[in-house]
Amino acid sequence: MAESRRTVVVALLVNLVIAVGKLIVGILGGSSAMLSEAAHSVADTTNEIFLLTSLRRSAQPPDATHPFGYGMERFFWSLLAAVGIFVSGAAFSVYQGVTGLLHPEHGESEVLLSYLVLGASFVAEGISWWTAVHQLRTESRAEGRGFFEHIRRSSDPTVKTVFSEDSAALIGLILAAAGIALHQVTGRSQWDAAAAISIGVLLAYVAFALGRDTKELLIGEAADPELRAHLWRELAAEPEVDAVVEVLTMQLGPDEVLVAARLDLADGLDSDGIERASARIDQALHQRHPEVTQVFLDATRASARERARSAERSGPPPETP
Predict the structure, then answer these.
(1) What is the pLDDT of residues 256-292, one digit of tens each?
(2) DSSP reduced 3-state for 45
(3) Which strand ranges, in their side-by-side order, compose the sheet holding 241-253?
(4) Taking the model in full, what pTM does it have?
(5) What are the C-alpha distances in Å from 186 to residues 26, 32, 60, 193?
(6) pLDDT tens across 215-235, in order?
(7) With contact defined as beta carbons under 8 Å apart, do 72 and 57 qualify?
(8) If residue 170 lies in a helix (H) or strand (E), which one and from where to where?
(9) What is the per-residue DSSP string for 196-255?
(10) Taking a C-beta distance cutoff of 8 angstroms, is the pair 192, 33 a contact?
């Protein structure tokens, strides 16, 4: 969490500084693209505050009203960040662009100042982007995954949001510079307006992608398929387990997983034997998978069909990760 907090703080400071610069230049020059970029940076700054709030609130320990902890706070505030990107960034950018197309301005804006601010912003955003990339690369190596595979499968929306925002910001800066340059060369402000609309469309896509992923986590998404397969095989390999009837999982937070399993235990186990087996299996799962924080085991009788399915899915005993 400390590394995620550092990544978010860097992004917050960067966006706060460049938002002011873009806003001043946008107002002075009347550039739709620059005003869109200013709105983009303001939205990103607000989102970093949301993400910092999520990191602080998700660290609260479990209590009577939230017995599984507050890990899902990360998902909730990340969803708000996605909404913020759409409302404050995408909608405003498209509005600026459409207004510029309907009411084109004649003459040139403060192009030199615009280029200077865009260049400085690109460097600053690049630093923030690289901080997020470094964290994601470190995490992907630890998980034994490729970089983009890790982004797709990661259940931590915080650093993923920062990476997506900064990637969109760098592309948006290029679009803004292109629009201003074409406006300068042709004398037609429609190019500047088109750049603003392009930035809005880009932000809308980023907001949609982040919102979709975070929504799945917020409404109870299961754990990673690879982890679920490991859990199934590990439970089936336990000597007291005749068959695994069902394994249900849910992400309680980026690094917290709930596991509920229905197991057909071996015949002849008395109540004490079931208790000992359950306690040992619980401990083994925690040791092999630290992210598994809650385990619920239910002893049940498997049907012939469920036994066949258990044998088919179990395969050879898994290696301990």
Answers:
(1) 999 999 999 888 888 888 899 999 999 999 999 999 9
(2) helix
(3) 241-253, 256-265, 292-299
(4) 0.77
(5) 19, 16, 57, 13
(6) 999 998 999 999 999 999 999
(7) no
(8) helix 157-186
(9) HHHHHHHHHHHHHHHHHHHHHHHTTPPPPHHHHHHHHHHHHTSTTEEEEEEEEEEEEETT
(10) yes
